[in-house]
Amino acid sequence: MVHGPQVGACNVCGELTTVHTNASCHRCGASFHLALRQDVPSKDCGQVWIGEESQTLEFACNICLGFAKPPEAAAESRPRYQRSEGARAANVLRSKRRPRRP
């Protein structure tokens, strides 16, 4: 479903959509970037196609199509800083140093 003048945060990339790039996924219902006009440069975070049975336009985001990871999963795959996990600075430095040779 296309939401003309409404804007929201893209479920795939997290950036705000614009009036000409906002679509709603038929599977999860979230907003995502979709180029609705060819004369306005924009990015696509999903796809649209004609459904064979219903002969209507169907919209889906790249997460539901399996082309992208959800933002939470992408954030979990990034390495975290040891300091944000409560480690002391001295311990972090010791673990990064090379062991001394005897």
Q: Which structural class matches the secondary elements?
A: alpha+beta
Number of helices: 3
Number of strands: 4
β-sheet strand percentage:
15-25%
- Describe the largest sheet: 2 strands, antiparallel
Strand order of the largest sheet: 1-2
* Overall mean confidence score, pLDDT: 78
- Enumerate the spans where pLDDT stays under 50 for 5 or more consecutive residues: none
H/E order of the elements?
Answer: EEEEHHH
Helix content: 10-25%
The N- and C-terminal alpha carbons lie at a distance of 69 Å
Query: How many structural domains in the coordinates?
Result: 1
The Cα radius of gyration reads 21 Å
So what's the overall shape? elongated
Please describe what this structure looks like.
The protein contains 3 helices and 4 strands; from the N terminus they run ββββααα. With 102 residues, it is α+β, with helices and mostly antiparallel strands. The protein has one domain. The mean pLDDT is 78.
Describe the structure concisely.
By secondary structure, this protein is α+β, with helices and mostly antiparallel strands. The protein has 3 helices and 4 strands, in the order ββββααα.
Keywords:
102 residues; alpha+beta; two-stranded antiparallel ribbon; two-stranded antiparallel sheet; 4 strands; 19% helix
What order do the helices and strands come in, and which of them pair?
Layout: E1 22-24, E2 31-33, E3 46-50, E4 57-61, H1 62-65, H2 71-77, H3 89-96
Antiparallel strand pairs: 1-2, 3-4
